[in-house]
Amino acid sequence: MSPEETTTVVVCPASELAPGERVIFEHEGEPIAVFNAAGELFAIEDRCSHDDGPLAEGEWSPAECTVVCPRHGSIFDLRTGKPRTLPAFQPVRVFPVQIIDDNITVEV
Ligand code: FES
Fold it and tell me: Are 8 and 107 contacting, i.e. CB atoms less than 8 angstroms apart?
């Protein structure tokens, strides 16, 4: 597959991800998390760029659109995937999210 090609993955019915909730799924072995921040949806790679630990299970703030890595505490911006604090300094991947036919979908 070339880097430009993407696949639309259905994650779950939109009604199953209320504001303030998150869901984690896997696509071809890659964990991805979708967050509902006050009705706005964000999808990020669920693997911290610092030490490959799971990222999305950390505390997150719908108001700030951030998640805190549970391992060493870097704060990541859900919009961009960029860390706001050390020790992580490289971004994680982010993915476009849409609602299609009442389902949450992610372009991977
Ligand atoms: S594994 Fe996330 S900050 Fe270290």
Answer: yes
